[in-house]
From TrEMBL, chain A:
It is found in: Cytoplasm; Nucleus, Nucleolus. The keyword Nucleus applies. InterPro entries: ExoRNase_PH_dom1 (IPR001247), ExoRNase_PH_dom2 (IPR015847), ExoRNase_PH_dom2_sf (IPR036345), PNPase/RNase_PH_dom_sf (IPR027408), Ribosomal_Su5_D2-typ_SF (IPR020568), RNase_PH (IPR050080). Belongs to the RNase PH family. This is Exosome complex component RRP46. PANTHER family: EXOSOME COMPLEX COMPONENT, EXOSOME COMPLEX COMPONENT RRP46. One of its GO terms (molecular function) is DNA binding. Its main location: cytoplasm. Residues 11-130, 135-198 form the Exoribonuclease phosphorolytic domain.
From TrEMBL, chain B:
It is found in: Cytoplasm; Nucleus, Nucleolus. GO terms for molecular function: mRNA 3'-UTR AU-rich region binding. It comes from the Eukaryota. Its main location: cytoplasm. SUPFAM superfamilies: Ribonuclease PH domain 2-like, Ribosomal protein S5 domain 2-like. Belongs to the RNase PH family. This is Exosome complex component RRP43. InterPro entries: ExoRNase_PH_dom1, ExoRNase_PH_dom2, ExoRNase_PH_dom2_sf, Exosome_comp_Rrp42_subfam, PNPase/RNase_PH_dom_sf, Ribosomal_Su5_D2-typ_SF, Rrp43. GO terms for biological process: exonucleolytic trimming to generate mature 3'-end of 5.8S rRNA from tricistronic rRNA transcript (SSU-rRNA, 5.8S rRNA, LSU-rRNA); nuclear mRNA surveillance; nuclear polyadenylation-dependent rRNA catabolic process; rRNA catabolic process; TRAMP-dependent tRNA surveillance pathway; U1 snRNA 3'-end processing; U4 snRNA 3'-end processing; U5 snRNA 3'-end processing. One of its GO terms (cellular component) is nuclear exosome (RNase complex). Residues 31-166, 193-256 form the Exoribonuclease phosphorolytic domain. Keywords: Acetylation, Cytoplasm, Exosome, Nucleus, RNA-binding, rRNA processing. Pfam families: RNase_PH, RNase_PH_C.
Amino acid sequence: MMELDQSCSVLREYGSEQSLLSRPDGSSTFVQGDTSILAGVYGPAEVKISKEIYDRATVEVLIQPKMGLPSVRERAREQCVRETCEAALQLTLHPRSSLTVILQVVHDDGSLLACCLNAACMALMDAGLPMSLLFCGVTCAISREGQIITDPSAAQEKESQALLTFAIDSVERSVLMSSTSGSFSVHELQQCIAVSQKASEQIFQFYRDSVKRRYSKIQ
Amino acid sequence: MAAGFKTAEPLEYHRSFLKENCRPDGRELGEFRPTTLNISSISTADGSAMVKIGNTTVICGIKAELTTPPSDAPNKGYIVPNVDLPPLCSSRFRAGPPGEQAQAASQFIADVIESSDLINMEELCIEKAKLCWVLYCDIMCLDYDGNLLDACIIVLLAALKNAQLPEVTVNKETDLAEVDIQKKRRLKISRHPVGSSFAVFDDSIIIVDPTAEEESLSTALMTVVTDEEDRLCAVHKPGGTSLSGEKLQHCINRAITRNKEISKLVDKVIGSMKATK
């Protein structure tokens, strides 16, 4: 069995840029290794009558693949990102309005859902929407030898026997969203959660630094 | 009076029950609704089953067709699951193209089939790169009262266990497939994935097998799929409020006992079918 320290939450190089688009209310890119997502947030804006909720805002998430039309796989991802955003945002402050998050896949080289979550969170922060917590996505792959690889590339994902993606919240470091494929033991699940929580510290620190950098320039 | 309270303040109504460790329908927090299973419900399908969890009713029909194997896996057949939520089953679904929930459920079922190794796909191949079986598993909800995913997994498992495929040979001379309708064999189902769904109320109280009303009032939903060796095939939590490690462990333990109950039910029903023949 592997130890936590060995796989000491090694993430690929990551980076982000905020407010790079002029039309959306908030925008960001998030790059993890070769995986890159461009995100835009519109809202709070007018909502279609059929989608209106009387006591809170309606959140819509659209994931646009690099090629072709969004398929069922994208719909499942959209659901995961949307419900995570709903948990983080204070939606009751904007009743009867819509918040739309658009995630454009620029390049997919593994850990796509995690990258989508990070890009969405950065874009929501950029839009200045009230949130009760921040979230980040971490993907863990369990290799055939039982080793846990954080933030795997597409090639590593293909080689793995199981793939787990978690959204971690910034307050309690607990699991907001979990999406898995492949089979794994309970012990491996708990290990992956622990590794992801550790990796999330790095990403939250990155969020903090980038916001600090941005607002120290203004004054 | 109670009916008025329920309509005006549904969340408070549920909370008043949960405070007493019970639920409006008389169940305990960790209790599933009665689950019933019927197989060979559709005589024209190659395999079929119907499952009821409380009021939730889901029916599955399997249609087997011959096709050429996909080029990236020439020695494998494949399964195409599809979950349909017609307007009949609940007022929340409209006619037209499948909504997000139906698409997400279809994807989830496809993921469970792949992660659990339910069937050895190589057995669905008849001749490499030439001929294989494709199983269209159409799952339709007739009555939606929460816990759709659990019902879908049980119904899929039972329908696949019920399915019989005719024997097919490829004639060497004419290169055509010959189907022997008389000789039918069952599929080899190697694993028994069973799901258990949980709803989180007020960020702390966990209830199992939520009804549609409980689902809409809860702050988070989670589905854990385990197989007979107590390995996890899926931990699907599409968002909502966070869950601590101990709570997660509690849910997994409940899912493992649920797997035993459902496996027993499926085996019993499949067994009774063989006995009557």
